[in-house]
Please model this.
Amino acid sequence: MIYTDYTGRYISDASYGGTHNFYSENLPNNGRYCINWKEFSQYNTTAFDFKPDRDLSRLVSEGYSLDFMVRGNATGIKFDVRFLDTKESDTDHPWRIRFVIDETVAAFDKKWHHVNIRLDAFTEHGSWDGQWYNPQGLFDFTKIDRFECSTEYTGTSGKELWFYNIHITNLDTAIVRE
Model:
């Protein structure tokens, strides 16, 4: 579990940019709270830092998925969900894999939508480490440092997102409440 009413055990908030409320009572899908993120701009992130880093390689090979609920207040919302591996030396970089969330994945119509993405469907995106490094096939699922929802795109003005029940699972048990 990454987030359900609260961040998971041994996970800390590493978000930056915009206004984050991890205890929003603004219509959570179920439970008491959800994450509300507003006033974000390009390159802002809702981030969860795993302490210690996690080995997700077995979960990838066994067909597990990233599973979460999302809602947005406006059409045209687009963001990445991504995992970052660890930077272990000066010659290593924090490589990313991502999946793009847009209206082909979830309608942003102020209602909750269930998203389930197999971990093996993510693609390597590269690394930002003081400068941009193009993908080199070096992402390592055995050393996951963070999970992020990141606005890599423009056109964010006035847009708002809510997240709930973010977890990695091999089950699809979501209940969407309207």
